[in-house]
Structures are given as C-alpha cells and as structure tokens.
Amino acid sequence: MKLSKKNAVVVRKALSGWVDEGTLSAEQQQHLLQNMQVQPFDWRRLARYAFLAALASLVIAITSLFTDSWLLEQLSELFSLDAPVRMAIAAVLAVLVYIWALRRRLRYPDKRYSNEAILFIAILLTACALWQLGVWLDNGSGRVSVLLVLAAVLYGVIGWFSRSGLVWWFALLSLGNAFGAETGYLSGWGAYWLGMSYPIRFIAFGTVLIAAALLLKPPLAQRGLERVSLAMGLLYLFIALWILSIFGNYGDLDSWYSVHQIELLHWSLLFGIVAAAAIWLGLKNDDGMLRGFGLTFLGINLYTRFFEFFWDSMPKAIFFIVLGISLWALGHYAENIWRLGRQSQDATDD
C-alpha cells in the first residue's frame, strides 16, 4: 500500500498502539509495515492543482481569443454558419467528450482529476450547444428559463447515471438559475414576485432543495450525489440570507437608501439563527459540512454587521484596530482548536 508521509505516520502509530494493547503481535506489525510504501512526494495533490491550473488556462485562452485578430477572423467564419449548424457541431463534440470521459472513468477510475477535467470540457460544450439552440429558437420573448430547465434536465440525467458530482452540481446550478429567470419573467422583470424579492425567493428555493436532499437521501447517497445536493441547498440558502440581511426585502434601491440599518436587524437575526442551527445540527450529527457552513456564514454575518454599523460612526484607525484584534483572536482560537485536536489524536494513537 502506498501512503503519503502524513498518513504513514498515523498508520505506524496505530500499529504500535495495537501492539501495546495486544491486538497485534510484533510479527504482524512488521509484516504490515513491510507492505507499506511511503510516497516521498504527494503526486495526487500535484495532479489536482495541475488540472485546476489547466482548466484555468483553458478559460484564459478562451477569453484571449477575442484579442487575437487572426483567431477572431477564424471564429467569424465559424459564426457565419447558421445557428442550427453551430448547435449541432457543439452537441456532437459534447457527446463525443462525454463518451470519452465516461469510458475513461470505467477504465481508469483512479485518475479522478483528469476524468473530472474532461467532464468539465463536456459540460462547457453542452452549454455552448444550448446557447446556440437559444439563438436558433429566439422569438424575442426573453424567456431563457426554458433553456436553463433543459440544461438542468440534461446535466441531471448525465450526472445521475454517470454518478458525477461535478455534472450534478451544474444541474442544480442550472435549476437555480432557471428558477430565478422564470420568476423574473413572470413578474415582468420587476423587483417582486408574489411579494418576494430575489433573496427571499432563493431562501425558499434553498430550503426546498435541502428538504429534497434529506428526503431523497438513500437514492442520492447510492449515486454519490447526496452531499453535493445538500451543499448546493445550503449555499443557496445562506447566500440568499446574507444578501437579505444587507438589502432586506427591498427591490427598489431608492427605498433601500432611505432605510436605517437597524430596520434590517431582524433579517440579520434570522441569518444568525439559521447559522447557529446549522452549527448545532452539525455538532449533534457530527456533520462537518453543516458545521462549516454554519461557522463560516455566522462569521460573515458578524463581520458584515460590524462594517455596517461602525464604518461611518467609528474613526478608521480604531475601526481597523478592532477589526485586526478580532481577526487575531479568531485565528488564535482556531489554532487552539487545531492543537487540541492534534493532541487528542496523538493521545488516541499512543
């Protein structure tokens, strides 16, 4: 078995502890140690960062196309084709890349990062095909939610059957955008739909998504999609709560400018209560993701209120002194928690 240096230390301590307790004999310990190989370099982490850098380079390359006159000329020839032809080209390329990525996953399941990178390219090609479909069928209504629903269905089916959390994430992202676009269309692109601003709509959307992730936990977990679904629901919910705590249920900026921040305090309290509930549920169920969301957005809530209430009323020198001290205290507290965790793990291993 090949292990990183960090994991090898943990395994050695565990084996030594089991020998001391009499669970393992010294001969069994030596036999297990002989079958353990320590990797001098973490190639898996390098692979992850390399593929992330490659995808970032791809995005930069695409944006750089628009500054290259020769490439623009070539692209203009491509876009001189009819929209159905452009859609068909992108769709065929997307299908071929999906087939390549999924076959590669079956043959090389351990090459996780390169497989996900190829899937990401297929996702982009799918988006291009849907974009050209929209150009082809555009009737001037501005109802883009239909295309977004189609994207959610396509990504959802592919993500479900391929058990890909990345594609499933794009399905839920498309579904959220479709919800926002459709409610905007139904309201005539006004500020309110059924009396709700966009943040309140997405609080409801995030809550429904979280409830669906919990109710459908067994089938989602079987496909490896349960955590992604729950994380997306939490992300929609907490970002909407954060925006609501800043702007309230005001769709008109002129009305919002005349509002005192204290009048929005009840939204901040709601934000804090939901974050505290996530922390409590995370601690109760030993769910690191829930704890992480709760702690992160509770901190965002507190620092947002600090900037709102004291940016204008407090001298800037004192403001940044207090901010720096609070961040120092937060870092010191986090460091102590980390040290206690390490000591507890070491004591358990010993």
TrEMBL record:
UniProt keyword list: Membrane, Transmembrane, Transmembrane helix
Keyword check for Ubl conjugation: no
Transmembrane is among the record's keywords: yes
Chain ranges passing through the membrane: 49-71, 83-101, 113-132, 144-161, 166-186, 198-216, 228-248, 264-283, 290-311, 317-334
Protein known as: DUF2157 domain-containing protein
Source organism per UniProt: Serratia oryzae
